[in-house]
Amino acid sequence: MAGDRRQAGHGNVAGVERHSGGPSSADMGPNTAADGVAEESDRPAAAVTAVDDHTQGTMRGRVIEELVSNSAHYPVANAVLEILLAREAGFQLGIEVFAMLAAAVVQAYVLTRMSRGDSPRPFLGNLVGPALFSVVTVVVSGVAVLATPNYLAYWVFSAVIGVLQCIEGRIGTRAREALLLLESIVRASILLASYWAFEIYIDRHYATLSGFLSDNSHIYVTIVIPILGALFGIANIARLRSRALLASMNTRLRTLSEWCWGSNIVCTAISDPTALVPGRQMRTLLFMDIRSFTPWCERRVAAEVTEMLETFYRACEDVWSRHAFVSARLTADQVLLVFADPDEAIRTALELRSDVEAALSTYGLRAGIGINTGQVVEGLIGGRSKKIYEVVGDSANIASRICQAAKGGEILVSEPLVRRLSNRFVLGSPMEISVKGKDTKIRVYALTGAVRASDRHEIRDSIGGGLGRKRPEASYGTAPKEA
Predict the structure, then answer these.
(1) What domains are defined for the chain?
(2) Which of 102, 170, 226, 239 is the most exposed place for a label (fewest CB within 10 A)?
(3) Percent of the chain with pLDDT over 90
């Protein structure tokens, strides 16, 4: 019985979770987040989950919402009925009352778990409570107790609501709203059924429908309770429409934020805003820049330039999405990736060279890569109305200058970075390059490839002797020859 709860969540373009098979709130509104924004599947799963956990609340909160909005309806009404009957007859409450309430809690948990999957099963989920209650009752009190009318009604209401929710998840918006209205009336009828059961216990004359309706007060509640249920249903539909608009707007804003900052930064900002306060960090910075970009653009129309840049960006994104990085930034023909792990930066660079070179070859272009590691100031920097996530410092400037020195298809890495690497990569002979703003030249190495696990060699021993000690380049996958 998880009908009037439809929250934002996974598996839907509009970022709306499909609770218990009923309609998602995104489906209730006029628009979805699909208009011009990326789908959830385009984002890293961890980032989506972290953001959704903050926008939807905790698992505990969702279980409580499911319990109070659906699973506990009949058990609570039945508990009140049992208390009144026990008071009237002068006997103690049986364990059945507590078993039904406990079963409702279990059902709420199961329905919440089901709703997080791609194929929620509201009918089966709504029968978890009655089934668990029946097992406990049979073990404690015997099968005969299940024939009690109010216990049979538990099965009936659960099954009816489960069927309605199954249908709601498979039909259009207008028809779904009509079923939501019907579901709300059915829920309100739980109160009417409980009242009728209590009246039957007081006077057996009310056991038939005609007998029950012979009393004007009974006619009154029979009319008013469904009307109130319909009014609550209308209010619930309006609430779901508003939630759909909020969910759609949430997805749009999140997508725009991720376009500007990246999903990792957005996730961090939501999880721990203080983590974005500028501070010094040890980072490895990878710059990739297209060679001869400006003259190439001057000979092309805007549409072709845009097509090439989007091809370049997509190729880069396909690579970095497979690696652990801190942030990514796209600026014209340049890409900046920031890493916490130097080895991860090198692995990414090797894949970038392979994939991006293939993508750019169609346009007759190539790209160079420069990598450096060191202390940087990292965090949100800006004015009161505009801030960017920036990485600044001498280490970033050097990485950019190394990139400028790299030829098309070449990866140059700084000596500080080499000293922090594991023995998994093959480097060429050291060389010195002039860097703008530096009085002395800096030493860099050309990254050739990665060494197989069986052929790894320690590269650190080869950099201590300076340029006077020639270090022959090693071919991919083999140890370097002796000089």
Answers:
(1) 19-260 (no CATH), 277-462 (3.30.70.1230)
(2) 170
(3) 40
